[in-house]
Amino acid sequence: MRIAVGSDHRGFHLKQAVAPVLAELGHEHVDMGCGAGEQVDYPDVASLVATAVASGRADRGVLICGTGIGMSITANKVPGVRAALCAEPISARMARQHNDANVLCMGGGVVGEWLAREITVAYLTTQFEGGRHVRRLGKISALENGGGTRGPGESS
Fold first, then answer.
1. What angle do CA 142, 71, 85 make, to 5 degrees?
2. What is the residue-level pLDDT of the chain in tens, covering all 156 positions?
3. How far is 61 from 54, CA to CA, in rounded Å?
4. Which residues are the active-site residues?
5. CATH fold of the domain at 2-130
6. pTM higher than 0.85, yes or no?
7. Taking Cα atoms as reference points, which of 111, 133, 132, 131 lies closest to residue 122?
8. Where in the chain are the domains?
9. What is the CA radius of gyration of the chain?
10. What's the CA gap between 142 and 108, in Å, rounded?
């Protein structure tokens, strides 16, 4: 897979720790910023990575800022992106299995290097389960496209 990777200055150290994991798993990675010592606003980098994933130029993305929250919020504004903020491997696996998350977000000030590696491995080695989850992703897509979803007990 081709993985787009990005961070702001607060996530740079963790991005550097995660990049070798991508290569170890046999994936190509494209670093979309930031560079060492560079000060950037997280929405700029999140937009680059999310757009690459949504357009198909990358299969998945990994975004890291101080908490991962800003990257997650920003990436999820791009139609077709399902960014998941994960701070442990179980959430990363479930984000792939049930939500078909295509962008992983982490916090450089929240998780250490070892844990970030474990989260990344869980995220990249887990496949989407399909089945009942496809229907749910359809409802998310409908919201993205200006439609709505039915609540529990509402008829079509």
1. 75
2. 999 999 999 999 999 999 999 999 999 999 999 999 999 999 999 999 999 999 999 999 999 999 999 999 999 999 999 999 999 999 999 999 999 999 999 999 999 999 999 999 999 999 999 989 999 999 988 888 887 766 665 554
3. 10
4. 65, 98
5. Ribose 5-phosphate Isomerase B; Chain: A, (3.40.1400)
6. yes
7. 111
8. 2-130
9. 15
10. 33
